[in-house]
Amino acid sequence: MLLHIHPDNPNERHVKTVSECLLDGGVVIYPTDTIYGLGCDIFQHKAVERICRIKQVDPQKAQLSFVCYDLGDLSKYTKSISTPLYRLLKSYLPGPYTFILPASKEVPKILQSRKSTIGLRVPNNNIARAVVNNLSHPILSASLPGEMVEEYTDPDLMYQNFKNLVDIVIDGGPGGMVPSTVIDCTKEPYEVLRMGAGEWDED
């Protein structure tokens, strides 16, 4: 299904359609504040495996992130973090950043990397945040496989390419071309693993 959702004022009925699909173990393609991503419910084991098959990666080696509504999920899915780090996250999120943080035991086993870390995203995108808010827990996020820019910026093309692999492709307008900036916060000084859409000038 190709589902058009208004990027500024997401229709509640459409958002509910997406979250019900995720709860049923569905896989969706959805917009963020950077590039479109593959998403599923973090607690749907088979859906996580489906995403990993689409990307042809091992779940424990894959670079998968949690998309959260806000920092309220921090205490549940990450180990205790320092007050300065919390303030730092709060100053950058929502925004085009992925923060690598130590994972707590609440993170589903299939998603616990060998390093016991998770990537945390709070995208500045109304559609993604509305879906997560409706779901009441994070969704898994992974980048789309593809080489050409058009393959992950044009929802119609994404639908043509992935309609047999995913349940819903959300059309929330053209996607960005630059992924999020990834910062490893598991050690000090924090390390930029990938410079992307978010500016980073912390020393």
Q: What's the main sheet like? A: 10 strands, mixed
Annotated CATH homologous superfamily:
DHBP synthase
The best one-word shape is: globular
| Computed structural class | alpha/beta
- One letter per element, helices H and strands E, the order comes to EHEEHEHHEEHEHEEE
Task: List the uncertain runs.
Answer: none
User: Residue-averaged pLDDT, rounded?
Assistant: 91
Give the CATH level 1 class.
Alpha Beta
- Count of distinct structural domains: 1
Q: Kindly report the CATH topology.
A: DHBP synthase
- The CATH architecture name reads Alpha-Beta Complex
The radius of gyration computed from the alpha-carbon positions, rounded to a whole number of angstroms, is: 16 Å
What is the distance, rounded to the nearest whole angstrom, between the alpha carbons of the first and last residues?
Answer: 45 Å
Looking at the chains present, what oligomeric state does this protein adopt? single chain
Helix content percent band = 25-40%
Sheet with the most strands: spatial strand order: 1-8-2-3-7-4-6-5-9-10
* Percent range for β-strand residues: 15-25%
DSSP strand count: 10
Please report the number of helical segments: 6
